[in-house]
Design a protein that fits this description.
This protein is of the alpha+beta class and 197 residues long. The protein is built from seven helices and five strands. It has a five-stranded antiparallel β-sheet with strand order 2-1-3-5-4, with helices on one face. Strand 4 and strand 5 form a beta hairpin. The longest helix has 16 residues. The protein is globular.
Length: 197
């Protein structure tokens, strides 16, 4: 399985992206503050940067991202809005079961979650409306998941397309994600323009 192992703060700076979008609140870099950057980027550079930003945030590579684009272009509605918010690792992160998307990907790969009662260990699994995502019974006793229960549990702002009751290790997909549910600034129309050339 190919993974992007670049330093997060350095890559976020190159893509003009806040590390908070990756789930890291305290990461920052002070190296080369202004740098030798060109002031004006070409249209292609803007489109490419936007695509690289989305790929980096969700932790996927080019071949898989292109497959998601092809699938989204065949779906009804706007192609840019149908891209990749429905991945299981992203849903686990948005429900608050993991602190970052990378951690969510690892937890899913290790088989800690079930979808509709079936164990799923594929991070790219696409959830549908009505799917119930929960932590497996065997995994509930681990320190990682015990920390999510009780009064000292971290409060997470769950998007409106997901339903998560407090002090439970279960969430449900109640609707398909809309454009305003994406938690970082992205101009998806630039990605569509890049692929439609």
């Amino acid at each position: 399985m190919a993974r992007n192992m670049q330093p997060i703060a350095k890559r976020c700076k190159a893509l003009n992206l806040s590390p908070a979008a990756m789930g890291y609140a305290k990461k920052n870099t002070n190296r080369n503050p202004k740098g030798q950057m060109r002031k004006k980027q070409s249209e292609y550079a803007l489109q490419l940067t936007e695509k690289q930003k989305v790929k980096f945030v969700y932790g996927i590579m080019e071949k898989q991202f292109h497959m998601y684009y092809e699938k989204a272009s065949r779906m009804p509605g706007k192609t840019g809005e149908n891209l990749i918010e429905r991945r299981l690792d992203n849903v686990v992160y948005r429900l608050g079961f993991a602190m970052t998307r990378r951690e969510a990907r690892q937890l899913v790969t290790h088989g800690h979650f079930t979808v509709n009662g079936q164990r799923v260990d594929i991070p790219s699994f696409l959830v549908k409306v009505g799917d119930v995502i929960e932590v497996r019974e065997k995994s509930r006793s681990s320190v990682k998941f015990k920390r999510l229960l009780g009064e000292d549990a971290v409060v997470v702002n769950v998007p409106k397309w997901l339903d998560h009751a407090k002090n439970t290790l279960q969430g449900k997909v109640v609707a398909l994600p809309a454009r305003d549910d994406i938690d970082f600034p992205v101009e998806e129309h630039l990605i569509v323009e890049l692929y439609s050339k």
